Amino acid sequence: MKEFLLRNLHGDVEGTCSGKVGFIICVLTVTNISPGKVLPSSGLAEFVVHYQAIVFKPYKGEVVDAIVTSVNQIGFFADVGPLQVFVAQKLMPNDFKFDSNGPCYRGDDQMIEKNGQVRLKIVGLKHQATQINAVGTIKEDYLGQIQ
Amino acid sequence: MSRNDSDRDEDEEFENLGRSQDNQDEDSDLEESPRRTSSSKKPPRSSSSSNSKRREEEDDEDEDDDDDEDDEDDDEEEADNVSRRHKKQKRNFNPFLDMEAEVDDEDEDEDEDEESYGGPDGFIADETDEAAEATRASKHMDLDRRRREEDDVDLEEQAARLKERYGRRDYAPRRAFQGQQEDIPQQLLMPDVQSPHLWMVRCKPGKEKDLVFSLMRKFFDTEYSAQPLEISAAFSRESLKGYVYIECMRQANVQAALNGLNNVFASKLTLVPIKEMTDVLKVRHKESELRPGTWVRVKRGKYAMDLAQILDIADSGDTAKVKLIPRLDMTPRSDASYIAGNNKRKQVNSALAGRPPPKLFNAREAEKVDKLNKPTSRGRGVFVWANEVFREGYLEKDMKISSLITESINPTLDEIQKFAKGGVDDEDGGLDLSAVALSAMSTSVTGHFQPGENVEVMEGELKNERGTVDSVNGDMVLVRVWDDKLKGNILKFPPTQLRKLFKEGDHVKVVNGKFKDETGLIIKIEDSVVTIVTDLNVKDIQVFSKDLQMAANVASGTGTIGQYETHDFVQLDASTVGVIYKVERGFARVLDQSGLTREVEPHLITQKRDSSRAIATDGEGNSIQDGDSVREMGGSMREGKILHVFRTFAFCYNREYMENAGVFVQSTRLLVSMASKSRSQPGMRLDTMNPAMMNMNRGGFNNRGGRGGGMMMMGRGRGGRDPLIDKTVTIIRGPHKGYLGIVKDASDLTARVELHTNCRIITVEKAKLAITNANGTTTPVSSMPDMSAPSTPRAGNYGGYGGYGGMTPMRSGDMTPMHPSGSRTPAWNAGSKTPAWNAGSKTPAWSASARTPNPYADGSQTPAWDAGSKTPRYGGSSAWDSGSRTPAHSAWDAGSRTPARGSAWGDSDSSSSHNQNGSSSGSGGFPQTPAASGDWMNRGVPTPGPFGAPSPAPFSSYPYTPGPSSSYDSAPTPSSNNFPSTPAASSSLGSGGGPGGHHAGSNGGAHSASVATPGATPGASNARLQSISTPGANQTPQTPAGGPSAPMTPASHFPQTPFMPTGGDYSGMDSHHGHSGGQVHGYGSGAGGAQGAAGPSYDWTTTDIEVKISTGKDGSSYEGGKYNDVSGRMVKIPPRSALSSMALCDVRLLSGPDDRKVIQIPVQYLKPVAPLKNDGVKVLSGEHRGALGTLMGVDVQDGIVSLRGENMYKVLTMSVLGKYLGE
């Protein structure tokens, strides 16, 4: 029974995202499993499970490393693990220009293209029930392509 | 009382006021009294001493006019003394008088007060003079002494002492009092009955200023004369034309002043009431709000509602110089007398109707327009033309502020940009976006500030201060300031001084303007202009911060417009559908099926469509539908998710594409389902086919050929006039049996008949009608095809044809009313049980019923049936349906692998008709090699289901066609399915077709073969399988469709089908096959083709290719079929000029009884053999005719050929490739 619950917990919770706590990466320990409560009108039972988990909750101002997933005219999207971050062209250093061959952004000594690695700072977060979106910037010192 | 007196009285009052305060404050009293004493020590300057004393007070209180003092200086000493005494007395006698009350009294009733204690005071003062004098003297001495002492003391000490003495003084009450005092002079300045009166005098409009100046001159002239002008002022108001104001004491003075002046109507003098005198000169506050740079609109005239920018405001405050985009009439003025003034007036009159469009002034153009009045240049970029000044192309014009709209201008960005375009004058300080924002801001109301919002102060003392809006009160915004010093204070600000404060990264919503309702994250803030990235389509937009609001949730799509929302599938007009990809204010942007975008207002959208059940086939033959992920096969290889499927178009969405907000449209043929892998397994596929027979007939089918069917039907089936109309009929059954009438209107099942007897129109089922022929006989309507057949060219009963369309398309179902019923009728079900073919084979019954003397209906053959639209239709349908149910069907299906299919319907992307598809699919079946059919078998055998299912389809439609319906219905025995089995019959069918007469043989062959197949199977799937196993049988049903259809029936729709071009070839082949009784191997194009009416030739003949000997087009075989199926190598071919069906070719046999022998054989018995992969090939026709190469691969109907001597691969149709046997 306990095993089943744990399995369900892992299955249901890991890899999900809630606006409140962020992305639940991994359930570490289960601290408490309440006695089951059979729901009226169905044979299902409800258990309240308290658990500890590793979560990824991005904060505004956090500097993260990300992998670029797509590049287009208005900016690029990058993934920080499960989090998708958008970096608008306005939030890139001024010398970054869009180059449709690639497509990529070319700066004086940097190039941002798909699958490239970038370090960026989160400037805005959008929490939704099951999703978090972020807007990042690389227009600051020490941000940008990771060589 | 003289003016001076009154002045003094006022002074006294001030002193009293001051003193009243002194009384309240002992220190000041002490300070003052010695001073007074000292002043009394200097009798000559007593008045000045009083002045100086008063000055001290004034310094303290910062009040009172110098004028008054000057007046006072001029006073005689006595007068002063009198007043002094008066004061003393007052102090002595009323030390505890509440002076404030007294002041109030005086304020209210000045005159009374003056009189009340003016006289008596003086009288009393005389009595107390000495005592007062004594006190004063002692006080003066005291002061002198103290001054001396002070001189001795160190300055620092003195300062300290002063501080000690005055430092703890609370000035608040004094200050408060000052405030009260401020009011007094204001009020005292107000005109009263004593002051000069103001007269308003009519004058000639426009001459006001002249008049005022002449009055002034007159005043100076007469100033030192005996009779000076006794007026104190004269002025005029710009806003009030035709009047001057003159200020003087008496009316007579006005008349005297105006005497002798022109342009004035002195007879009309109006006294301005005292209360209104100030209003005359009041400057309206509103006007002062206009600053250079603000935007206004013109109220009326040529520029009505045009945006204008104020450049300058006249001193008077009622006119402003504005900058406009000129609306000039640039039509050349040929008439020299057409002067500008005239022109102007005319334009004003025509008002808005014909006003020229706004356009920047261009001097060169103007020159051309009016040769007489060229624009004169006044410095750089400045021109004067037609009495108007143009600078940098803009018109500068003086306008009355009253003719401008100054409030709630809300200039759009477009308008403003027009002003920015021509470069902005330096004096305006440039026109950047923030300035625009500012001006936009200033015209906006408080409404956009919400309690709780963060704001920043933009101007004034508290600039850059930040705070939170506490509340909005009228037009003031109450802001709780964050700053430490002012913390907690709520300050009032006008909204113009505030701007909303956001931080980068804030999630905001646009509440106004073009991007209304978008939400997004702020990525950049520059003053009032904020750049945000929208949530919906990740685009950066710029908006004014005033238009933003913090937003918690993401906009649920820029939402909805009316009942439509983003990504809805909408019908725009009969032929256009589209998907809304963006909703903007007041309209939606729609991408239609042709890839064009348009802006549509919601009321122009006909309806919302539902594509949730629509299915289409992708480029690999897999079915795709809404929600599937697809990728483009070529081009930019875009990927996306299907939003909607429409016919052969799929609207896809991928948010990563910027164009059209990620929505794009593509033909389904050019898409590949990304989930196709599993489906493309043959087994899988058939599985989907089987239950999907419905789909085949409705959805899927539809998507391929069906849509064409729908089209056809629309064009003809529906458009065709029911042949029954206007016929005289007899009702043969039912309550009206025996009645005679004329058919007025007819639908599929019923007819409206006007009875001869009582002129009533009744609705009767068609089946109950019989047509009365000229000779008195009747024909049941059930045999109506007879009727229509003779008029073949019209291809009369397309109703029947339409039936097909009707059955198929669920989506074109709306065009074919019969569809729904069709799918529901018992016929359908019955059909699904009885082999369709059987039903078809009931025909004899039908023909039997055709007992009419119709010449065509000879015997049971009823050529009409065949020759009319019936046969091809029938053929087509059978081909089609058999296509979907018999081997042919598999062929059709598997057709993706046969060349034929490709050329037939694979290509017919656009609007291939149903029919054509049927036939083409049929023809597709033919080229099927045994392998293909075997393939088919594999799939077909395990699943007999589909065979049953589709077959009834065509028949289910029959009931709706006037003719066959009843005949089928009445056909009682399935056994009658032998009917066409006699070649004779079928050949006669063929001949009935007229033009196709010489095809009779082939048709007959085909037909008989067809009968042989399904006809033999009254429903047993086993039998069916057997029939399937005979390839010949399989294909035959198509024969009539493929073969004769194209060339034979000129009136039919076939010629229109894209199938036509290839039709020749295939029809030839088809018929050929029919003859050969199911030879599937003959892939080739030609041998039989010669017989086809349109059959092109034997062009293909060339040497060194492998050929196969088979039956000729006329059914004959070379040497009795001895060599049939023998392959050979072309050794020698006849010259092209001599090419005919009987032209002899030398062929070296490669197999059979006479191996290696070279025989001469007419070309009609030959067919090229299709090459296999890696075979050497020779191109038989086309551009590369004769070229040699290797077949690298086969892709559907195309072969990929590596031609010798060329590096590139060529993609050539398999039909033009022959198997090359040379080196």
From TrEMBL, chain A:
Domain S1 motif per the UniProt entry, residue ranges: 57-131
Alphabetic keyword roster: DNA-directed RNA polymerase, Nucleus, Transcription
GO CC annotations, alphabetized: P-body; RNA polymerase II, core complex
Record-annotated RNA polymerase Rpb7-like N-terminal domain positions: 2-43
Subcellular location(s) of the protein: Nucleus
GO terms (BP aspect): positive regulation of nuclear-transcribed mRNA poly(A) tail shortening; positive regulation of translational initiation; transcription initiation at RNA polymerase II promoter
Subcellular location, principal: nucleus
GO MF annotation terms: single-stranded DNA binding; single-stranded RNA binding; translation initiation factor binding
One Pfam family, short name: SHS2_Rpb7-N
Keyword Transcription: yes
Annotated InterPro entries: NA-bd_OB-fold, RNA_pol_Rpb7-like_N_sf, Rpb7-like, Rpb7-like_N, S1_domain
Family: Belongs to the eukaryotic RPB7/RPC8 RNA polymerase subunit family.
Record-given protein name: DNA-directed RNA polymerase II subunit
Chain's gene name: RPB7
From TrEMBL, chain B:
Cytoplasm as UniProt keyword: no
Biased composition (Polar residues): 840-852, 1019-1039
Annotated protein name in UniProt: Transcription elongation factor SPT5
Function per UniProt: The SPT4-SPT5 complex mediates both activation and inhibition of transcription elongation, and plays a role in pre-mRNA processing. This complex seems to be important for the stability of the RNA polymerase II elongation machinery on the chromatin template but not for the inherent ability of this machinery to translocate down the gene.
GO BP terms: regulation of DNA-templated transcription elongation; regulation of transcription by RNA polymerase II; transcription elongation by RNA polymerase II
Family: Belongs to the SPT5 family.
Ranges annotated as biased composition (Acidic residues): 57-80, 99-116
Transmembrane segments: none
Ranges annotated as biased composition (Basic and acidic residues): 139-150
GO terms for MF: mRNA binding; translation elongation factor activity
Alphabetized UniProt keyword annotations: Activator, Elongation factor, Nucleus, Phosphoprotein, Protein biosynthesis, Repeat, Repressor, Transcription, Transcription regulation
GO CC annotations on file: DSIF complex
Residues in NusG-like N-terminal domain copies: 195-284
Composition skew (Gly residues), residue ranges: 990-1004, 1076-1092
Subcellular location as annotated: Nucleus
Biased composition (Pro residues): 943-953
